[in-house]
C-alpha cells in the first residue's frame, strides 16, 4: 500500500543503507498491516537533473509517498505519523547533512490490487491471514 | 490520460516485450478514447534500490497508474477493468513468475493538457475527432 | 510544494537547458510562495521504455506534477496557469519539435513536511518569513 519514492543524490546511500531504510519504513507500517504492502523505490537523480528552488539539489532528499490501504483517522494520528517518520529517518537524512521534503497522497483503496486480488479491508479475517502469512491469497470471507 | 509507471527488475523485459505490453494497454483504453492519451513508462529498478516488505524485490513488478480522462462509473466497471488488466498482463507477469502490485489514482480532468490544449469531454464531437485523427487539435465546439 | 516530474527523451536537454527550465518554473511559483517549495526532477526515458499510444516516444515530453501548497481558487486562475506554463515552456518543447502532455494532481496540504516542519498556511506571518528567508524554520505563530 504505501509506495515510497525516494529521490536522492548519486552515492548518497549504500545498498546496506537502502535496505536499512526500507526495513525501518516497513517496520512502521508492518505493525498494522501486512509487511509486503510496503514498497520502497530509491532513485538516484544527478544534480543536473534535480532542482530545488531552481538550484541543483546536491544535498537533497525528496520523498513522495502514496498511501492506499489506510487514511489518517485523526489529526493526532497524522501528526504522530510525521513526527515518527521524522525521527526514524534522522540517521539517514539530517544526521548526514541532507535537506529533505516529503509529501503523501491518499489514493483510492478500491483501485488497488496485489497479485490480481483486491486486498481485504482493515481488520477483517482475510487481512489478518494476509498479515500472518505475509502474502496475498484469495479471500475466504465476503 | 492514463499514465502507467511500470517499475521492474533489470532485464525483466526486452524492447519487444515492452512495446507489446504498451500496445496491449493502449488497446484497452483505445476502444473508448484517443490512443495517444495512453502513456507507458518502464523503469528498471535494481534490487538494491527496490524493496517490497523490506526485502530486495528481485522478481517484482510494481505498477502505478494515473487515470485522468475517465473515472469508473460503477463498481462493476471498476472490477471488470482490473480483471481484464489482470488477464492482459498475465503473459508478462505471473506466467514469468513475477509477483506484482498495481494501484490507480484518479487525478483532476481539468488539470490536464495535451499540446497545450485542454482535452475535450467524453463523448463530444471534438473528442470523436481527436480519436479519429489520433492527435490533439484546437476545439471546434464549445 | 509543486513537484514536477519531467520525462524526456535521452539528450533532449543539456544541463543548462534543465537549469533554465527549472528556474523558469520556479519563477512562476516563487511570486506567491517560497522558492524552495519548487522541486523539478528530470528523467531521461529511452524510446524502448517510453510509449505514447503504443508507439516509442522519440520526441515526447511527459510532465506529471503534484501541487500541494495551493489549489486553484477559480476556473480563471486554473486556465491562466496552464496558458502561462504553455507559453513558458515553448522554447524547450514546441519550438524544438517535441510533443507534450502535462497533468497536475492536487495532494493534501496536511500530509506534507519540509525539514520535518509542517509548512505554514498561505498568507501567514510564518509563510512570509519562509518566503523572505527562502528556508524552512520552526513556526513562531500558532
Blueprint (SSEs and pairs):
Three copies of one chain form a homotrimer.
Chain A: E1 3-8, H1 15-30, E2 39-44, E3 50-52, E4 55-56, E5 60-67, H2 75-89, E6 99-106, E7 112-114, H3 125-133
Parallel strand pairs in A: 1-2, 5-6
Antiparallel strand pairs in A: 1-5, 3-4
Describe what this molecule looks like in 3D:
The structure is a homotrimer of 142-residue chains. By secondary structure, chain A is α/β, with parallel strands linked by helices. Helix content of chain A is 28%, strand content 25%. Chain A contains 3 helices and 7 strands; from the N terminus they run βαββββαββα. In chain A, the strands form 2 sheets. Chain A has a 4-stranded mixed sheet, covered by helices on one side. In chain A, strands 3-4 form a two-stranded antiparallel sheet. The longest helix of chain A has 16 residues, at 15-30. Chains in contact: A-B, A-C, B-C. Chain B binds chain C through residues 1, 3, 15, 18-19, 22-23, 25-27, 30, 34-44, 66, 68, 105, 107-108, 110-116, 118, 134, and chain C through 7, 43, 45, 48-54, 56-57, 62, 64, 67, 72, 75, 78-79, 82, 86, 94, 99-106. Strand 2 (39-44) of chain B pairs antiparallel with strand 3 of chain C, so a sheet runs across the interface.
Please provide a brief summary of the model.
The structure is a homotrimer of 142-residue chains. The first copy, chain A, is an alpha/beta fold and 142 residues long.
Amino acid at each position: 500500500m504505501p509506495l515510497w519514492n525516494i529521490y536522492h543524490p548519486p552515492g548518497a546511500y549504500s545498498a546496506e543503507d537502502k535496505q536499512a531504510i526500507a526495513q525501518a519504513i516497513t517496520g512502521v507500517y508492518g505493525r498494522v498491516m501486512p509487511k509486503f504492502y510496503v514498497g520502497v523505490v530509491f532513485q538516484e537523480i544527478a544534480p543536473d537533473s534535480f532542482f530545488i528552488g531552481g538550484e541543483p539539489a546536491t544535498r537533497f532528499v525528496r520523498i513522495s509517498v502514496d498511501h492506499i490501504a489506510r487514511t489518517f483517522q485523526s489529526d493526532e494520528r497524522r501528526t504522530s505519523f510525521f513526527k515518527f517518520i521524522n525521527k526514524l529517518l534522522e540517521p539517514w537524512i539530517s544526521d548526514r547533512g541532507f535537506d529533505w521534503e516529503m509529501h503523501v497522497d491518499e489514493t483510492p483503496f478500491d483501485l488497488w490490487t496485489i497479485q490480481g486480488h483486491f486486498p481485504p479491508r482493515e481488520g477483517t479475517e482475510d487481512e489478518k491471514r494476509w498479515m500472518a502469512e505475509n502474502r496475498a491469497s484469495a479471500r475466504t470471507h465476503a
